[in-house]
Input
Amino acid sequence: MLCPSCAHDNIPGVDVCENCGSDLAGLDLPEAQDGVAGRLLTDEIGDLPLAPRVTALPDETVAAVIGRMRRERQGYAMVIEEDRLVGIFTERDVLERTVLEGDPSTPIAELMTRDAVTLRPDQGLAEAIGIMADQRIRHIPLVDRAGRECGLIGGRDVLRYIAEFYPESLINLPPRLDQTMTRPEGG
Output
């Protein structure tokens, strides 16, 4: 990023010019754009239609929670105690913790991820996408300003939102444009 005062080429994201000490904070913010890119930068998480929530109590068994996740066809359960998020249990926890060290009657509180990353519905969609990519997570619980659980944004929610901006004919293109189907696929 070029310093407007001395034209020194700084590393992107620095707050102070390495050459002259000028304040650079906020100068490398993304510019508003049209279409999907612009909406991703301006829309809030709460603007998305989010999937139904799957919740569990800390003393519920792993078997009961996994059963609920399967019935609801969701890859997570938010663990709630007195309207407060105390953890999240995801498919990754099933693979990494339950299979290796858990017994189906273990309380979910013993295997859940504590101190889960959370966001508020009034935070930006781009922020949620960035956190999902940087931390390699697919589910981020939402809490209100008082810390009460109020939803969850998942990778599927983001993909559905982005897909709405594209015509169905584009979304249904084959992986390779030169590919032609010799027989119908699917159900």
User: Anything to note?
Assistant: Residues 1-30 form one domain. The radius of gyration is 22 Å.
